[in-house]
């Protein structure tokens, strides 16, 4: 009896001392925090601390994405944050391998790549698929994807050739450089279909359009892995991090004023700029492609203007904030082509109800962005569109898929038409 009692006591003690089972993993709530950070030193300090600062401003306030601990960290750093919005996790339903869509209809990377091939096959006189590089994971032999673009025009001699002396002006449009900005990939998909199947086709007689629907496929693979609860991955997949998301921010890695304001040296920061300018293969591939597509018409120097015979335009679609942004982003200093860039931006913004301006005029300064690089290196007008509002049913990073047709596309399509026209004689 004594022996049985002793055994029972030991068993109970072992149960009490054994580690508790790990909580089931699943999506967590995300918070958008309102942070007082007026333009200038306060805003730039906030970015330099490595917080996930959104491309959104309301008067003197910026907005930061974080978890329940982020507000406390902000207060410690001198920013009295308040919760603006809580984004509860959607019911957990991971994407299955082979799915063509996730989160109610958004297309996966494999679906996007197949779409390019399908359009080119169905419209051989209009569309050509171009493989312009490999994602970081593919260069490591660990999965990954081809980096692909679609050239769309009424094909004639010299069209879609990788040479800056091609006969037609070129508009270049890309989506999901920041992986979690899923609206932009869908806008690219719709633009491709519109180019080959609507009144826009007639415009292709005298303009060439290049579309990269997903510029950061490794990052997007992380996003879509969450299925009905997409992962808010912003960066690519190159790197490790124990207290945040892995990767490098591809829109802080380009070699125009790299390493200056609005970027971080912390590998876990959402604005981690990478170990050196142009370190990431996705950025290298884009820059190489742009140099093959556009003539360099601008002398070196921050104040030099591109020549009046410059053709083309580049649009990088992001979300969210309802902005049309143009260089410079690293400073509020004006470019040599400020008047023309400002006019084009205002024309686009007037069609959508967006606000136009340099990033430092309406948000904050940030360096190492691809749009600055395009203008800096080549003189080609370049723009960032921040698509979508911060609030409401269709606001934020993850709007319901129906919002693309109902809310976003009706605003983005007219801007794309405006950009096609402006590419012919931008200055």
UniProtKB/TrEMBL annotation:
Its cofactor is Zn(2+). The keyword Ubl conjugation does not apply. Residues 1-24 form the signal peptide. It comes from the Bacteria. SMART domains: Zn_pept. Keywords: Hydrolase, Metalloprotease, Protease, Signal, Zinc. Residues 105-422 form the Peptidase M14 domain. The active site is at 386 (proton donor/acceptor). Residues 227-273 are annotated as: Disordered. InterPro entries: Peptidase_M14. It holds the Pfam family Peptidase_M14. Residues 235-245 have a biased composition (Polar residues). Belongs to the peptidase M14 family. This is Peptidase M14. It comes from Lentzea pudingi. The lineage of its organism: Bacteria, Bacillati, Actinomycetota, Actinomycetes, Pseudonocardiales.
């Amino acid at each position: 009896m004594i022996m049985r009692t002793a055994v029972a006591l030991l068993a109970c003690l072992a149960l009490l001392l054994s580690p508790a089972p790990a909580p089931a993993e699943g999506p967590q709530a995300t918070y958008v925090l309102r942070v007082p950070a007026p333009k200038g030193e306060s805003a730039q300090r906030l970015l330099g601390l490595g917080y996930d600062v959104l491309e959104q401003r309301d008067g003197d306030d910026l907005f930061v994405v974080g978890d329940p601990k982020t507000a406390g960290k902000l207060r410690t750093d001198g920013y009295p944050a308040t919760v603006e919005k809580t984004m509860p996790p959607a019911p957990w339903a991971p994407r299955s391998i082979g799915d063509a869509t996730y989160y109610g209809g958004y297309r996966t990377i494999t679906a996007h790549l197949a779409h390019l091939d399908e359009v080119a096959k169905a419209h051989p006189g209009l569309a050509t698929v171009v493989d312009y590089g490999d994602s970081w994971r593919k260069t490591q032999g660990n999965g990954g994807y081809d980096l692909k673009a679609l050239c769309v025009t009424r094909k004639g001699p010299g069209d879609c050739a990788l040479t800056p002396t091609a006969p037609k002006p070129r508009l270049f449009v890309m989506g999901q450089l920041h992986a979690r900005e899923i609206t932009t990939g869908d806008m690219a998909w719709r633009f491709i279909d519109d180019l080959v199947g609507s009144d826009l086709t007639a415009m292709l007689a005298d303009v060439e359009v290049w579309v990269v629907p997903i510029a950061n496929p490794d990052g997007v693979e992380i996003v879509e892995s969450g299925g009905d609860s997409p992962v808010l991955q912003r960066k690519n997949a190159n790197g490790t991090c124990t207290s945040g998301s892995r990767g490098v921010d591809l829109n802080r890695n380009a070699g125009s004023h790299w390493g200056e304001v609005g970027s971080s040296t912390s590998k876990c920061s959402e604005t981690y700029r990478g170990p050196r300018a142009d370190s990431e293969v996705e950025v290298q591939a884009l820059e190489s492609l742009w140099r093959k597509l556009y003539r360099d018409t601008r002398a070196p120097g921050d104040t030099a203007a591109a020549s009046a015979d410059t053709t083309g335009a580049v649009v990088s679609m992001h979300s969210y904030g309802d902005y049309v942004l143009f260089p410079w982003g690293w400073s509020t200093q004006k470019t040599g082509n400020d008047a023309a860039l400002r006019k084009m931006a205002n024309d686009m913004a007037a069609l959508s109800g967006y606000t136009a301006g340099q990033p430092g005029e309406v948000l904050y300064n940030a360096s190492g962005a691809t749009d600055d690089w395009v203008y800096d290196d080549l003189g080609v007008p370049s723009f960032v569109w921040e698509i979508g509002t911060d609030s409401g049913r269709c606001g934020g990073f993850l709007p319901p898929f129906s919002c693309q047709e109902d809310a976003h596309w009706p605003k983005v399509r007219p801007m794309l038409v405006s950009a096609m026209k402006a590419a012919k004689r931008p200055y």
